[in-house]
């Protein structure tokens, strides 16, 4: 079952169960996917969003909510922070399991070896391999500096 179909099925189940918070988050996910579909149609791509792109959208949504929750906690707005964290839980149901630090290091090593990277100039190629293979499974914001350190 495609990722889009899984999200639609979860949305219908949340409607039937009258789970307002979950339903709201699932609708936000659907809206983000449809926005990307519309943008792709404007670029002449009628095929729509792929599962890999949906994983990227979900990853961005999680990061946005983590940032918001942190800001709310610092501002003493704990009820809003809890709501953001609850949304993260719903979004993460559709993301693959995150790689551990050891698995991430091993993936970086394999990508460096695969590309034959020897210097920092090869970082873009290494990151492209990682993004192609591990979208949704690792935080590329933290992986970038690790790759840079490995190549630098």
Describe this structure in words.
There is one protein chain. Helix 2 packs across helix 4, helix 5 packs across helix 6 and helix 6 (123-134) packs antiparallel against helix 7 (140-151). This protein folds into 2 domains: 3-92, Hypothetical Protein Yqey, Chain: A, domain1 (Orthogonal Bundle); 101-151, Arc Repressor Mutant, subunit A (Orthogonal Bundle), CATH 1.10.10. It is built from 7 helices and no strands. The protein has 152 residues and is mainly α.
The CATH class of the largest domain is Mainly Alpha
Please bin the fraction of helical residues: over 70%
CATH topology of the largest domain: Hypothetical Protein Yqey, Chain: A, domain1
CATH architecture of the largest domain: Orthogonal Bundle
Stretches where pLDDT is under 50 for at least 5 consecutive residues are none
How many domains make up the 3D coordinates?
Answer: 2
How far apart lie the N and C ends?
42 Å
């Amino acid at each position: 079952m495609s990722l889009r179909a899984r999200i639609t099925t979860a949305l219908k189940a949340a409607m039937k169960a009258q789970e307002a918070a979950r339903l709201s988050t699932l609708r936000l996910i659907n809206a983000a996917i449809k926005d990307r579909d519309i943008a792709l149609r404007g670029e002449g791509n009628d095929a729509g969003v792929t599962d890999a792109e949906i994983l990227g959208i979900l990853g961005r949504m999680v990061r946005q909510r983590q940032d918001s929750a942190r800001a709310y906690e610092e501002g003493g707005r704990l009820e809003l922070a809890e709501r953001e964290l609850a949304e993260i839980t719903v979004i993460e149901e559709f993301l693959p399991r995150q790689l551990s630090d050891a698995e991430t290091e091993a993936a970086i090593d394999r990508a460096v070896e695969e590309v034959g990277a020897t210097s920092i100039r090869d970082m873009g190629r290494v990151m492209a391999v990682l993004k192609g293979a591990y979208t949704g499974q690792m935080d590329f914001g933290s992986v970038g500096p690790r790759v840079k350190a490995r190549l630098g």
